[in-house]
Amino acid sequence: MLNNNEYLDKLYQSDKSIIIYKNNNGFDVYTDFSKKIIVDKKNIKKFLNIQCKEESSSIDGLNCYIGFFGYKLLCDNIGIKLPKQKTTNFYSGLFYKPKTKISIGKKIIIQSTKTNFRNIKTNTKKYSKLNKNFNLNLTLQQYSKLFDDFSKNIKQGKTYQIKIAQTYSKKGNINAIDLFLKLMQINESPESFLIRDKGYSIISCSPETLLLKKGDLIKTKPIAGTLRKTKKINHNKALAFFRRNEKETKEHNMIVDMERNDLSKICKTGSVKIDKLKTVEEYRDLFHYVTTIKGVLKNKITNHDIISSLMPGGSVIGCPKISTIQLLNQKEKSDRNIYTGSFGIIHSNGDMRFNIMIRTLLNFKNAIELSVASGVILGSTAKKEYNENYIKAKSLLDLFN
User: Rounded to an integer, what distance in angstroms lies between the CA atom of residue 61 and that of residue 112?
Assistant: First the structure.
């Protein structure tokens, strides 16, 4: 019989569907899925409020669904219709119910309701070596035109801040496990995850927790502020930069106020408070400016109420959220797909954890794509924001030889 390490290695080398999700102590790996549910605007409410509450396992850690909502679905869910855009027709949302969970920390712990779960066939598929050459959907000139258009919208009072998305793309198929393990060596992030399924793969080093719900307590952790990392800039210098930079401070304050407002819709009056104000998180290529906000949920608030209030996450849209989404959707010619959607886990007791899908690469129909975005506010410049997008994409682009 395979030991735990041998089983995990063989699972990685198989063609089985698996999900890997970063936790505080290591990673959780989910596989042997008994259900795979496509979530769309017709069933999202029932899925969140009824289906996810069903317990079907004697192992508590398996009473959950894990998966993602795409950006379009999150817009549909709050009544925002998107114009016709170029699309790959990827899943609107997809969630899996696992029968096996492997917790990887100081040791490997396996929980499973599947008989003979260690019996796995090795995948012999070979992957081509992929180079670094990606196509970018917006040139600096095209980006600058959008930037100028949105700057006019800001001056007219239609929005205060707006995030322009850019997409890097190329043809090819990735070895998702190999790339994800490589990514975790160079840029492990608190909301990192992988999905490998038949027909597609997603790998992510997302840094942003959109919601963490335990009982009636809920937190959100908006990121607003990016500084390129250099040998001369350490954590303290990054913090000093953000604090004295008027543009970064203004942008951060707007997003924090917006997220506090989103929480206030579902939380008890007076319970929404700043938990950690304006801290700096350090990653391989950049520093981020982060605030953590918490609240206590009102009585009878459902999971659908929570998702509808907080998603799509405002830090990757702009402010105010609804009118800014509408402006973005009018100008962006291609759909955002999974980008600025949310990946996470829903437990049968109602607890949830979701990220924002940024720093996330999708491989579908022999196409690889990665989207990033930076904010337009008064005082920002097109060239600076355009270059900031590259910094955000770099850790994923560097995976390719």
Answer: 10
- Taking the C-alpha atoms of residue 213 and residue 62, their distance in angstroms, rounded to an integer, is 18
What is the domain range of residue 305? 4-118+132-397
Residue 110 sits in a domain whose CATH number is 3.60.120.10
Cβ atoms of 196 and 176 closer than 8 Å: yes
- On the question of pLDDT at 124 being above 80, the answer is no
Q: Is the CB of residue 48 less than 8 Å from the CB of residue 304?
A: yes
CA 112, chain centre distance (Å): 27
pLDDT for 34-57, tens place per residue?
999 999 999 999 999 999 998 888
Q: What is the mean pLDDT of residues 217-229?
A: 93
| pTM beyond 0.90 | yes
- Nearest 10 degrees: CA dihedral of 65, 67, 70, 76? 0
pLDDT for res 150: 92
Query: Six-digit token pair at 294?
Result: 């918490």
Count structural domains, the chain: 1
The size of the chain, in residues, is 401
